[in-house]
Amino acid sequence: MADQKSKHATLAIDGVDTPIELPIYSGSLGPDVIDVSKLTGQGYFTYDPGFVSTAACESGITYIDGDQGILLHRGYPIDQLAEKSDYLELCYLLLNGELPSGTAKEEFVSTIKNHTMVNEQLRTFFQGFRPDAHPMAIMCGVVGALSAFYHDSLDIDDEEHRKITAHRLIAKMPTLAAMSYKHSQGQPFIYPRNDMGYAENFLHMMFATPCEEYKVSPTLARAMDRIFLLHADHEQNASTSTVRLAGSTGANPFASVAAGIAALWGPSHGGANEAVLNMLDEIGNVDKIPEYIRKAKDKNDPFRIMGFGHRVYKNYDPRATVMQQTCHEVLEELGVENDPILAMARELERIALEDEYFVEKRLYPNVDFYSGIILKAIGIPVEMFTVIFATGRTPGWIAHWNEMIGSPYKIGRPRQLYTGSPKRDFVEVDKR
Ligand code: SDX
Questions:
Q1: Tens of pLDDT, residues 294-314
Q2: 396-428 burial string, b = 16+ CB within 10 Å, else e?
Q3: Is 152 a catalytic residue?
Q4: Which of 131, 291, 311, 420 is the most buried (most CB within 10 A)?
């Protein structure tokens, strides 16, 4: 529990004789928080559209310092994890709070490998979708449908049930993601393989066919693992908050994660990686960049530089730094370091970071700015980009859900500032 210092905030309200004392809590890092829960009893709500200044919960999973551009997972900096760890090890860390021993890591990897298949009946779900269905629409449906198959492990108050559900979700997301892609290609689904690593297995399910042996490039498998790792968790972002809110009603974890997938789909959130590539495609060439920078600055123009800006980071997103490095490595190893899309992205970043509008509003590249370029180089189609994000984010969603369900919690139920009509009597239709 947060450390409640003797510190208080005193709220003086016009016309109210006695100021209201509000307790202040301190965490281990970051700003103190003011507990405003007693305000309802005094006849007030707090008002914070978009939750810009609201801590909705206490958590020990991920810490972000937006001003310093710091991201810690259970205390470990993202750049160290990206360089020295791997995605499944980070999944273990997010779920359990500590890095695994060698034995624990082997057991975890083996457990995940043995949950990668999905029930054969799930395959028929895909026949209900048109081939041109957006894969995020498919993922919203089939992930929620997983709860129709696991009645044996849906007692959310049972720690073992929560554990096997976490393993099932982490293990099956790549399988379902690859199936949503194969469906769009009219190709047969490829079963997961227990002799492959997590990212290698995903790329094999995506691009192999039954007609011949398919060898996944170790370079691309490493890049894919890095992409999953960089998306694994990010504190109380919109989709994670959605998972927590859905889970706070007692909804099962598959349904709660499906709600998170739906929230992630928006172009202001996880849909931005797909939007970045579409934006670069629309800009077309570096000569057009100044025109689009002007559009982005024009209040009357809805155009935004996708992959730029962030609610929390008012500095470089540390994931974008790692992503950019990975981008160079992958494209260089693939012999496409002169990729025109990458050249345009780098020129767009250079111009934007020198522009006073972006400097004054502290807008920097975020995780989505370079990820799409790597995914494109790996051969992932643009419409699959957010599905990759959702797959990578699954351990974060389930770690937050588990953290909430694993300790006393209340159903999330915000209030409002009502500005509608005062009470009035019904008017019969012949009198209107
Ligand atoms: C993710 O929360 C997370 O942690 C999310 C995420 C995660 O890992 O879960 O990090 C993943 O969602 C990253 C963000 C991906 N989205 C985009 O790249 C879309 C483009 N970015 C913007 O839509 C925007 O920056 C947001 C939505 C990301 C943040 O919006 P905020 O915090 O609500 O800030 P804002 O929209 O109020 O912007 C502040 C100002 C505004 O100008 P003023 O009204 O103050 O004059 O900056 C401007 C905005 O117009 N602005 C931009 C801009 N982003 C903000 N102007 C041009 N281009 C942009 N990209």
A1: 999 999 999 999 999 999 999
A2: bbbbbbbbbbeeeeeeeeeeeeeeeeeeeeeee
A3: no
A4: 311
